[in-house]
Write a structure and sequence with these properties.
mainly alpha, 3-stranded antiparallel beta sheet, 3 strands, 81% helix, elongated
Amino acid sequence: MGKRRSKTGKADSKAGSGELPGRLERRKHPAGRRDDTGKGMVRSWFEANRSDLRFLVVFGLCLGLYYLLTLTPPVKKGFFPAYLRLNAHVSGAMLRLFGEDTTVQDQSLVSAKGPSIEIERGCDAVEPSALFVSAVLASPVSLMSRLSAAAVGTIVLMLLNLARVISLFLVRVYYPQAFETMHLDVWQALFIFMAILLWAMWASRVTRKRAVQPDAST
């Protein structure tokens, strides 16, 4: 009887040791599933937000490229001074057309009444235009549509900048106490708002057009 018990005990211990790896495997399996589920959720999130992520990446790259270009000597010492002088001469010509006795000295507009303004970096509409163009180029539409929108929007912002320069000059001459408010608080915020508004209007029109196209083809 004692021998039988010892054999049985050995058999039971073998059986118990044989079941242990299976239990460990069963315990590890749910954890593996959780890992797979986590990876699947991340992958599905990236797939669901792929277009938004692409927009942010391309927008950031375009805007970063613009700021890098502004640091190069041809742009910093060549393009910007020439463009600012052009703004001054065009604004001066328009002011004279409206009857203002105005002269242009390099980048400055000088009134015969005494006051003057100097057109400097930040008063050239280049940065808001870069913001607008970056958003347009990052949008998921055809290349021709993006290029045409970038060109038209940039022209609109440049024309608006001429209106800013002229209005600031007139404020400087006739309402000097309001110049700083118009210059720093009104026009700077308005330009950023206009750049975003132009892109939003264009994106809304393109989105509606793409939504109508499938119906038109059927």
